[in-house]
Write a structure and sequence with these properties.
- It contains nine helices and 13 strands.
- By secondary structure, it is α/β, with parallel strands linked by helices.
- Strands 1-2-3-4-5-6-7 form a seven-stranded mixed β-sheet. Strands 8-9-10-11-12-13 form a six-stranded mixed β-sheet, with no helix packed on it.
- The longest helix is centred in the C-terminal third of the chain and has 15 residues.
- It is globular.
Length: 263
């Protein structure tokens, strides 16, 4: 677990997962040090102990006020129950659908939740955080978040990519990595995480990129990408052509048998 500061008032809690055949996928959660501190996602279950140690070194559990869940996939909810228990003043911020999905696995009650839809803002004392719908996603509950005071955009799974090594995952900025490798990884990730994009109406999908283009944040912090500073135009250029990518098809049993025999 790496702890670093990728943007003003932000501490990143960075992990990775090795996915056979794809590479190493970054898994980032973030602490926003607002007047009312915000935790954005809670890591993967397999790293729970390390995640919690890193989190409580970045913020006192008594001070944490908000847990913003970009969507209720397991690599975002890995320590959710433990954080809710340790931080009694914190409320879970999600959508109505996100609350419903989350409550299947976690004892979350409406009194500890705050429902925030795309286009709405959350006042965290010294700034407003505005929710938006990323143009690609793997859960209907997904939202991203813009810190209007610093221009920091938390994009959830959008713009993610697997990489060839842990060193690439730990890059201080995605701009340090070969552009062709990053774009190839991002397009692969879109085909894995949002395979529906191959079937969308192309003009409508292109139009869905415009809100982020107008937002033009200073830094994009994705769950599955190193920090991307002043990068929104090139990130959107990558997404613009995502419908042309062949959908990902994983190995079948015969291929798995061959892979296992080669080990």
């Amino acid at each position: 677990m790496r702890i670093h500061q990728p943007a003003p008032d932000v501490t990143a809690l960075s992990d990775e997962a090795e996915i056979p055949g794809l590479g190493f996928l970054p898994i980032n959660a973030y602490v926003l040090h607002a007047a009312e501190p915000v935790l954005i996602d809670t890591g993967q279950p397999v790293s729970r102990a390390k995640f919690l140690d890193a989190l409580w070194s970045a913020v006192d559990p008594a001070d944490l006020r908000w847990i913003y869940l970009t969507h209720p996939d397991r690599d975002h909810t890995g320590s959710l129950a433990q954080v809710l228990e340790a931080a009694p003043e914190a409320k879970l911020v999600t959508t109505f659908l996100g609350f419903g999905i989350t409550s299947i696995d976690f004892p979350v009650t409406p009194d500890r939740s705050y429902f925030l839809n795309p286009g709405q803002s959350l006042d965290v004392g010294d700034r407003r955080l505005t929710a938006f719908r990323p143009p690609v996603y793997d859960s209907p509950a997904t939202t991203g978040l813009l810190d209007e005071s610093t221009g920091t955009c938390f994009s959830s799974d959008c713009f993610g990519a697997p990489f060839g090594s842990v060193d690439d995952v730990a890059a201080a900025d995605v701009g340090e990595l070969p552009t062709a490798d990053v774009v190839a990884g991002q397009r692969l990730w879109v085909s894995v995480d949002s395979p529906w994009v191959a079937d969308v109406d192309r003009p409508r999908f292109t139009a869905s990129l415009e809100p982020l283009r107008k937002m033009d944040p200073e830094v994009v912090l994705s769950t599955h990408l190193p920090p991307a500073r002043q990068a929104m135009p090139r990130l959107l250029d990558m997404l613009r052509d995502a419908p042309d990518v062949d959908p990902f098809v994983g190995p079948d049993q015969a291929m798995m048998n061959a892979m296992l025999a080669s080990l």
